[in-house]
Amino acid sequence: MVSIDEVARLAGVSTATVSRALSGRGHVSGPTRARVESAAKTLGYVVSSSASSLASGRNRNIGVLVPFLDRWFFSMVLSGTAAALMRRGYDITLYTLTADREQRRTVFETFLRRQRVDGVLAISIELDEGETVRLRELGLPVIAIGGPHPLLRTLAVDDVELARLATAHLLGLGHREIAHIGASPEFDVDFHIPTHRRQGFELSLADAGIPARPELFEPADFTIEGGFRAAKQLLGRPGARPTAIVAASDEMAIGALLAARELGYRVPEDLSVVGIDGHELGEFFRLTTVDQFPLAQGERAADAILDEIEAPDAAAPRTAQGEQPTHLPFELIVRGTTARLER
Amino acid sequence: MVSIDEVARLAGVSTATVSRALSGRGHVSGPTRARVESAAKTLGYVVSSSASSLASGRNRNIGVLVPFLDRWFFSMVLSGTAAALMRRGYDITLYTLTADREQRRTVFETFLRRQRVDGVLAISIELDEGETVRLRELGLPVIAIGGPHPLLRTLAVDDVELARLATAHLLGLGHREIAHIGASPEFDVDFHIPTHRRQGFELSLADAGIPARPELFEPADFTIEGGFRAAKQLLGRPGARPTAIVAASDEMAIGALLAARELGYRVPEDLSVVGIDGHELGEFFRLTTVDQFPLAQGERAADAILDEIEAPDAAAPRTAQGEQPTHLPFELIVRGTTARLER
DNA sequence: ACAGGGCCTGTAAGCGCTTGCACTAGCCTT
DNA sequence: AAGGCTAGTGCAAGCGCTTACAGGCCCTGT
Predict the structure, then answer these.
(1) Cα–Cα nearest to B95, from B46, B44, B49, B138
(2) Distance between CA atoms of B8 and B339, rounded to whole angstroms?
(3) What is the pLDDT of residues B205-264, one digit of tens each?
(4) Torsion of CA B302, B306, B309, B310, to 10 degrees
(5) How confident is the model at residue A319, as a pLDDT?
(6) Chain B residue closest to A285 (CA)?
(7) Would you state the torsion angle of the CA atoms of residues A57, A58, A61, A66, taken in this order, to the nearest 10 degrees?
(8) Residue A14 CB: number of other CB atoms within 10 A?
(9) Residue A128's CB: how many other CB atoms inside 10 A?
(10) Under an 8 A CB cutoff, do B79 and A61 touch?
């Protein structure tokens, strides 16, 4: 591997000047910089990250914590993050946090402490207090997507409002018997997303003067299959037939769609269904949904953390612990699974 | 951050001994090792990766190249890789290779040359010759999953056999009019996977003495929607109605299932459908498929590269360039979408 | 009893960069 | 005209580890 000395020799300057020319720090005259750059290019020189990190304390590397890689939502956020970081010349080191406490501990106490990253992005991941503390103790910028996290700077959608928007759409179409497919209590580990969405659903009904009816709530597990089963319950039950369903995720909404079809319901004529998330399959199923733009979420978080790292006054944003989460945008996408209630 | 000197002082030994005790290289007596370990634990010491890398040339870090993060198959392979690497104490640095040539070049010429990784895993990614050469020039172990790659050590399933197995299953059930949903030619960039699967399909038919009928082939784009459209073509066409379909991916098979349902076919009574891959949605749709265990593929590749890196005789495996790809296992999973042909 | 050979440990020389400091030269103030 | 600045460059001291080398010790075989 070619080293900085060879570049310095070829360009006829000291290694200090090469370092300054290539990193853009300190003063280097135009012609000198050009000579150095051309020498580096000729030799195919790239700074050694370990030597550079050791000397400067900077890594050009961000640690990203994710709970799963194989779920659509997280993949999208991660995609956005990866693209944005790469654009700005940063590497991304991936840490998958499973439920295995022992392994999680290793991540926080060993992997993240190797001084390999300049900042940490926690994507949609529930952290216990110890983990949060250990994260803060790294002394690095940390940004969480999805929250709230009491002690971390957080970017999150307002799940209550999200669900409220979905529900209001159905109300606006004249529906009154609206069911909700949410999550079983044990799924509520995830920042209470299901709970918040259920709250939004109920608040929206309340706004319209409609009392919540427990028999129109059915828990599921955020999968297509779960949504399918829940919808079968909801639609197969004697009495109380809803004319519309708000599912707390697009996967569950799609499951509901398939269930409805199997039971002979026409969608949207006999039943309206709205989902939440903006899942890629939504388009095929013509699913009306509230999109939360996960790709953009990832990009935004990546840019935010790099801004924080590269900010001259690094102190400012991090002191703002416990601040209100920054709210991310979402949008109702009306497609073909919701329609005005005919009576 | 606590440094090795503090640990040395607390344990009453030299930094050299601390390094040896903690890394397991060289000889350290039992009691000394114990003292060092306890001192390290007390102080919460973790070796600085940059200092360690600079001094030793080892990074405990593997670069992983993927084409997409948001497709189920790649996510699964990556999941497996991440889990296996973490188990063995390695970090994983992720590089997403898009179609943007310029950006790809940066990855090969800058990112990967920062001497940050000890090896590279190329997951299901088509590399042009220049890229392959640059990869080899890194002087690091490289393993590709999915191939073949002429110049790289490769782990891959035999796509011809995969499709052959799927087709043979239908033949074994008595089907003779079997259609195939494969890929449009422009999708063949991916190692000719579609082409190979089509070959397997046709070979299997030939084995049974059945001539290939072009009207029973329909191209699609590997998505549910594509499979749906293709199946509609196949099943809606006058004359030549197939009694079974082999789809080159589970997503397309699911699309076909939905199309069949919409056209009033009962599956599997009127139509058998078999997919390929082992997609998570397969279970819900009761899809018969040939599983290729992507998670295990990722784990296996990770273990293989670590073995190569940690092997005492590092020379051996890498000389074997251009060797035959190691073939990965696959297995027919019979579920509910295929049945014996009733006549 | 003594050479030979492990085992265990310390000393110190780097690994390849970055950056504080020193210095020079030119330019701007006053 | 003198002092003060700033830009541009080089020198050299680290950054926090790893490891070759050397030395001391103890065990073994003959």
Answers:
(1) B138
(2) 70
(3) 999 999 988 889 999 988 999 999 999 999 988 777 899 999 999 999 999 999 999 999
(4) -170
(5) 42
(6) B225
(7) 50
(8) 13
(9) 10
(10) no
Quote the percentage of chain A above a pLDDT of 70.
Answer: 94
A chain contacts of residue B281, beta-carbon cutoff 8 Å: 224
The backbone torsions φ and ψ at residue B288, rounded to the nearest 5 degrees and listed phi first, read -75, 135
Q: Using an 8 Å Cβ cutoff, are B167 and B204 in contact?
A: yes
SS3 of B86, please? helix
Nearest partner of B95 among A304, A47, A305, A79, judged by Cα: A79
Contact A291, A275 (CB under 8 A): no
State the nucleotide closest to B31 in CA–C1' terms. Answer: C8
Contact B232, B252 (CB under 8 A): no
Residues A200, A221: Cα–Cα separation, whole Å: 19
**Residue B259 contacts residue B247 (beta carbons within 8 Å):** no
CA distance B326 to A112: 34
Helix orientation angle between B72-87 and B294-310, rounded to the nearest 10 degrees: 40
Residue with tokens 């969405």: A197
Contact B75 A75 (CB under 8 A): yes
Residue A126's pLDDT band (boundaries 50, 70, 90)? Answer: confident
Task: Determine the pLDDT at residue B207.
Answer: 92
Distances (CA, A) of B166 to B169, B197, B227, B275, B296: 5, 10, 17, 7, 20
Model pTM score: 0.92
Q: Which two tokens stand for residue A224?
A: 């297509």
Sign of torsion over alpha carbons A309, A311, A313, A315: negative
A331 CA – D10 C1', rounded, Å: 58
Closest to A182 measured CA to CA, from A195, A166, A169, A167: A195
pLDDT score of A190 = 60
Task: Please choose, from the candidates A175, A135, A152, A153, the residue with its C-alpha nearest in 3D space to the C-alpha of residue A273.
Answer: A175
Question: Mind telling me how many Å the CA of B81 is from chain A's nearest CA?
Answer: 11
Q: Looking at this protein, which amino acid is placed at residue A229?
A: R
C-alpha to C-alpha distances, A109 to A94, A142, B47, B324, nearest whole angstrom: 15, 16, 12, 42
Residue A307 identity (one-letter amino acid): D
A297 and A328 Cβ atoms separated by less than 8 Å: yes
Residue nearest to nucleotide C6 (CA to C1'): B27
Placement of tokens 């216990």 in the chain = A128
* Tokens standing for residue A67: 């709970």
**Helices vs strands, H then E, count in chain A:** 14, 12
Cβ distance B117 to B85 under 8 Å? no
β partners of residue A301: none
Amino acid letter for position B200: G
Chain B positions in Cβ-Cβ contact with residue A78 (cut-off 8 Å): 69
**A232–chain B nearest CA distance, Å:** 14
Nucleotides of D under 7 A from a protein CB: 7-12, 14-20
Amino acid type, B208: A
Edge-to-edge strand list for the sheet holding A244-247: A217-220, A178-183, A244-247, A272-277, A288-291, A331-333
Contact A170, A162 (CB under 8 A): no
CB distance A163 to A207 below 8 Å:
no
